Amino acid sequence: MSSVESTGSSPSPPRRWFVVMNAGSGRHAARRRQQLIETMLGERGHSCRVLPVRGGRQLAEAIDQQGRLALDEDGVLVGAGGDGTLNAVAARAHELDLPFAALPQGTFNFFGRNLGLSEDLADAAVDLHDVVERRIQVGEVNGRIFLVNASIGLYRRLLQDREQFKRRYGRSRWVALWAGLNTLFRWHPRLGLRLVDRDGARVEDVLTFIAGNNRLQLAQLGLPNADCLAQGLLVGIKLPPQPLADLLRLALRGLAGRWENSENGVAFGFHELVIDPVSRRRRSLRVGIDGEILRMAAPLHFRVSPRPLRMLLPRQCAEKLDR
């Protein structure tokens, strides 16, 4: 299975768009974005229902409500926001086997940029006027899909710290970089893990494990394993315990796009991997999924989802992916 599968080239215009929009901070700005989406789609003859939300329980309730309406009315479930919002909406669409569309609006937008989607909200909404369906590979951990990556350990803590910094200092890539350096300079506990794959079982100590499903993010690190995604695999990254100086050098090489497998870090392709804490007292783990943090019961079962995501892509984006 490839990471993107074609299901034909003829447009399949939806009957209705059901949008869950991350309102972010600022009621007036959120209202302007909502009106922009409704106007761009309405002027082109589409019916559109937008629900602005601010995360947490409100986000979950809005996704459930919009998902049920989309299912009843043969519509499309749409996420408007960063990778975390897109993941939550896409997970519901995947669960209901609904077509999904994205209006990316986050800081990094790895999912949208990887697919060539416009980060300008007006342009992205206009692009939905002419879409085609493509089957997009997604990863799973314990049945929960991820679009970009899922992680435990150090990288998960980096994501958690980054969100705290963003709430205090605003959303920007400089704030994210500052938060990352702050995380690296702290003490990091090692995780004793039992890993099971097609090659058998082994016990390893790691600082972090990341399962990647985004070619753009992996390529930016300089990982040659990014090609594994086109072969229907995920990319795993393991960092063993190491001195801070080695960890900083590894981070700098990654930022420069010059990753090399070594004793300080290994990247590899896999289809399915089970991770279980060695300690019997640790029966759950915090997992970072596309920037959001969830607690999951162990063992963690990572795999390529057997069912791709039904993604509606602007025609020009789909044509580029098909080449």
TrEMBL record:
Database matches in InterPro entries: ATP-NAD_kinase_N, Diacylglycerol_kinase_cat_dom, NAD/diacylglycerol_kinase_sf
Protein name: DAGKc domain-containing protein
Domain (DAGKc) ranges: 12-145
Superkingdom as given in the UniProt entry: Bacteria
